[in-house]
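User: Predict the complex.
Assistant: Input components as received:
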Amino acid sequence: MGGETIRALDGVDLSVKQNEYIAIVGTSGSGKSTLMNIIGCLDQPTGGEYQLNGTMVSLLGDTALSVARNRDIGFIFQSFNLLPRATALQNVIQPLIYSGLPRKDRKAKALAALEKVGLQGREGHLPNQLSGGQRQRVAIARALVTDPAIILADEPTGNLDSNTTAEIMALFDGLIETGHSIIIVTHEHDIAEHCSRQITISDGKIVADTRVGAAA
Amino acid sequence: MNRHFENLALALSALRANLMQSILTTLGIIVGVASVITVVSVMQGFSSSITGQFENMGSNTLVVEPHVPFRERISGVRAKLTYEDFEAISRRVDDIEIIVPVIYQMPGTLKYRGEQASLQFFMGTVSAYAELNNHFPENGRFLIPSDDTYRRKVIVLGSDIRKDLNLPAEPAGEYVELNSQWYKVVGEMEAQDSFLGFSRNKMVIMPFQTAVGLLREKASEKMQFMIRVHNIDDQDRVKEQIKRLLRKRHNIGPNERDDFKINSSDQMREQFETVLDGVTFVVAAIVGVSLLVGGIGIMNIMLVSVTERTREIGICKALGATRNDILVQFLAEAIILCLLGGLIGIGIGYGLGAVVELAIPGIPAVVVPFWAVALSLGFSSLIGIVFGIAPASKAANLDPIIALHYE
């Protein structure tokens, strides 16, 4: 490859507590995706430490990273990233398969998660039979079905219209009330406004970390 | 282990989602395995039929027949055995239990009340033939010594002939016409397996001397002696005695070749089986190549499928699938594909074997040995493993970040 090494993140020092509602804001190329990948255990920092629930993630190997993702992270993506040939229910069950939950317990747990996001009755639909908002709800159900330490949402409303965006954000707000921790990566300010803490990244550095007194 | 079952289930559901594509993918394996099963089943059918034929004859049987090398035969040289040779052997050679003269004559047409049947051959022999070949009449009687003494014009029918001619169920007493002469039917032989298309059910048997009278001087060119020895250990010695006797009777000089051949039934069976084994081996090698090609086809499709499903793999990794999970899932897909192909191929192979059996009259019953089925399935899964490793490890080693953003 050659060329110079680019520091996507440089000297980031961040600590997140339970039940925090955080927005990571930044322009494209600011390093927010890299930060998200590291928080989501998809990537390892070349230097520095990342500790998650007492585990030194930056020391984990490939398989242990997979386990950490399964147990502690719930991903929500801009493009939903549902498995196209699996029904809503099967999509929500998928992470439970990797967590080794017995077959008989999976379905009940997945159905409960689908109900939480208001999709009861839709569990047999394939992703292409659902609207964008419904697909993102399936993705949210899939993210929270394992009770992860952090729900990590990457531009979760980027592909949705404003009405659906409002619904999805209301859903996130509700999850905060039931004790979940959510990190939303976004470049939209009105999304960031929902959150109780806004972290702004620019050129790989945290340039602002503001807490809003009473969010939601 | 439980986790691997889960990955297996995921592999199955991925294949089920593209059932038609999966079956097409595995076409190479299907064709390969179907050919193995067909060829092996037909060959085994032949082989067990041959073995059965020779068992009827008994392993302590010798056949003496006139023989000239092919090159001399096309220039008109003929070898002969005479009835005097037969008598000399029966008198002078020790340890012979039964000896019968047999004359084979090639096709003829048999007629009965407007019905017509083609014979494969007719045969002239004596009463002891039935015991020596373990082949007895189903109804009526076989030849008796006085048939020979009086050169009676009687015949015993092969079991197919009676049906072809629409003769009554108890054909004894009817008259049939063979090459413009009338013969009285005295019996019908029991049915036997056919033998390389050479069916004893399609022949008629007449008294030896009647056949000699019919063929006159030609008879000695078509003559064979079938000999059963008392004890198989004596076989070589008996053979040697016959050889010396015939060489002397035929005035063959010390440096000249025999004008006859003495085969033991074991020898003949071995010759047939060597030929069949050779054919089986060659076909197996060709089929092996086709299975290899089928395996490469599967690898190719699996590689395409990994690329197609890159994003899906990324999603599964984000949800917590380990490298091992993905590896096992894709390897299982390749193996299941190959096994599926193998199973379909076995089914088609059985079908083709049955078709061959129906289409070619006189072919022995088709037998599919268990080892061929086991070998086909084993080889299929081996191909699945060998050619599934590359695509599976490609899938397992995908970087989740890149895979998630793959378009």
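Chain B has a mean pLDDT of 86.
Let me know if you want any component modeled separately.
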